[in-house]
Design a protein that fits this description.
By secondary structure, the protein is of the alpha/beta class. It has a single domain, classed as NADP-dependent oxidoreductase domain (TIM Barrel, Alpha-Beta Barrel), CATH 3.20.20.100. 45% of the residues are buried. The termini are far apart. 40% of the residues lie in helices and 13% in strands. It binds NADP nicotinamide-adenine-dinucleotide phosphate (NAP). The site of NADP nicotinamide-adenine-dinucleotide phosphate has 27 residues, from helix 9.
Length: 285
């Protein structure tokens, strides 16, 4: 399985390419081009990453038909209120030189989320966005949005990796037909010891794959989409090469046990985090 069907029938690749922190335009164009040449068809950006323009340039220069690609961006929360969300989506499209996006997400559950969602619903109905979803929504926020909306989010993109498997959030997403997309699937390189864990090493040895490939495969095999980022061609190829093996039930069970249930990046639920968000800035508004 290389794709997953969203709740509106649109199919999304299970493996994509993340572009967070690739701020240099040339590096961004080069790595997106390498990803597409390697076979990756989903590219993930955000208004906040400051690279929508470079992503759009690489996509348009790729020679791959637009309909074959799946492009995701995210609305920054300073753009939520008073119709600003819709305007910011149009600015994103203009920067990228694209007519439509395959998926637009609310990046964080801060500020006037409901106003932003109404705008995304309207753009979705108009066909400017093929699917709409959210990111960093804990299950309580996700369910409340579903309760009070016409369109159920197609995706919730949350920090997910071996040490933060999001089992509770996953159960709620499954219940409501929301696809779970894993950001920072490699833990953003902050905790490399996850790749030295005996369960990871054993599975890697058994299948002749690398620990990183095992970590990605573990998620994909549960129907969780992954969007690893790398600026190095050999790593981009390594990260994409995860469809020629399957982890056994015993290996999946052993990997499930290493979960610490501890997000490093993506928790939006502590008051300290919400308080600090007032000072977060965006590169492109
Ligand atoms: N919605 C959100 O709030 C949110 C937050 C964070 C991220 N994201 C999205 O998720 C994507 C992925 O997350 P992320 O970029 O934060 O972290 P990540 O993909 O978990 O990790 C990226 C780090 O791993 C390294 N790496 C990549 N492939 C490797 C390999 N095969 N072996 C060893 N190291 C490897 C990269 O270094 P090199 O580049 O030097 O190879 C980089 O330091 C982002 O790019 C972004 O699109 C979304």
């Amino acid at each position: 399985m290389t794709e997953i069907r969203l709740n509106n029938g649109v199919t999304m690749p299970l493996l994509g390419f993340g572009t967070y922190q690739i701020t240099d335009p040339e590096a961004c164009r080069r790595s997106v081009a390498t990803a597409i040449e390697t076979g990756v068809r989903l590219i993930d950006t955000a208004q906040n990453y400051g690279n929508e323009r470079a992503v759009g340039e690489a996509v348009r220069a790729s020679g791959v038909a637009r309909s074959e690609l799946f492009i995701t961006s995210k609305v920054w929360f300073r753009n939520h209120a008073g119709g600003e969300c819709a305007k910011s989506v149009r600015r994103s499209l203009e920067r990228m030189g694209l007519d439509y996006l395959d998926l637009m997400l609310i990046h964080w559950p801060f500020g006037d989320v409901y106003a932003a969602w109404r705008d995304l619903e309207a753009l979705y109905q108009e066909g400017v966005l093929r699917a709409i979803g959210v990111s960093n929504f804990s299950p309580d926020r996700l369910v409340d949005l579903i309760n009070w909306s016409q369109v159920t989010p197609a995706v919730d993109q949350v920090e997910t990796h071996l040490y933060c498997q999001q089992k509770t959030a996953h159960r709620w997403m499954v219940k409501y037909g929301v696809v779970h997309e894993a950001y920072a699937p490699l833990g953003q390189s902050r905790v490399n010891d996850m790749f030295a864990l005996p369960a990871v090493q054993a599975a890697a040895r058994a299948h002749g794959k690398t620990p990183v490939q095992v970590a990605l495969r573990f998620l994909i095999q549960q129907g969780i989409a992954v969007i690893p980022k790398s600026v190095r061609p050999e790593r981009i190829r390594e990260n994409f090469d995860v469809f020629d093996f399957s982890l056994t039930e015993a290996e999946m069970a052993a990997l499930a046990l290493v979960d610490n249930d501890a997000p490093m990046i993506g928790t939006a639920t502590t008051p300290e985090r919400v308080e600090s968000s007032k000072n977060w800035t965006s590169r492109e508004l």
